[in-house]
Design brief:
Helices cover 25% and strands 24% of the residues. By secondary structure, it is of the alpha/beta class. It has one domain: Aldolase class I (TIM Barrel, Alpha-Beta Barrel), CATH 3.20.20.70. Helix 5 (161-169) links the parallel strand 7 (151-156) and strand 8 (177-182). The chain has a nine-stranded mixed sheet with strand order 3-1-2-4-5-6-7-8-9.
Amino acid sequence: MLHLDLLPAPPVADQLLPGVVLPVMEQFYTIQGEGFNTGRAAYFIRLGGCDVGCHWCDVKESWDADAHPRQALPGLIAAVLAHPGRNVVITGGEPLMHNCGPLTAALHAVGCQTWLETSGAHPLSGGWDWVCVSPKKFKDARPDVLAVADELKVVIFNDSDFAWAEEHAALAPAHTRLYLQPEWSRAARMTPALIAYVKAHPRWQMSLQTHKYLDIP
């Protein structure tokens, strides 16, 4: 399902002007390790800037947008096109702290699929082929972002998170794919609990950070 920004997109030629820049912490071509698209080749663009502040975040260096160089769209698009895959994951940090409209329109113009990974704490911008909302307790997900989630991926840190996951599932559309994922540092403790929960509540699926088991980015 393609989710389009409510605002009309400017012409692609304008979007590729060097004046459109975004703080990029890192970018790389790899295999998607989590959720619905696990196992598929994807180019990741990790934008700097996050105000959610998860204490267990494994990319805390992404939080300060000013710590990362601004990159113009032509360079980002050229880096994507240097690889054969056309699935592009925009992640963070929290990518929706930025206007993603120009970036997603430029990616669509060159034949790419756009996949968003967001906490849902900021208004939706951009046009997306897949929206993964991973809500966090530290800053509430917006109901309007949950309403367009193709995938709800809840990170489980302790036993109380199961009820919290159900609260968010109730706000998502019926078609949303539901995933529970153990927080990496607590995987040994929480994975057996996740297995038991999914067996008892089969509308949920388990998601594992397979890229960490495979030791790839």
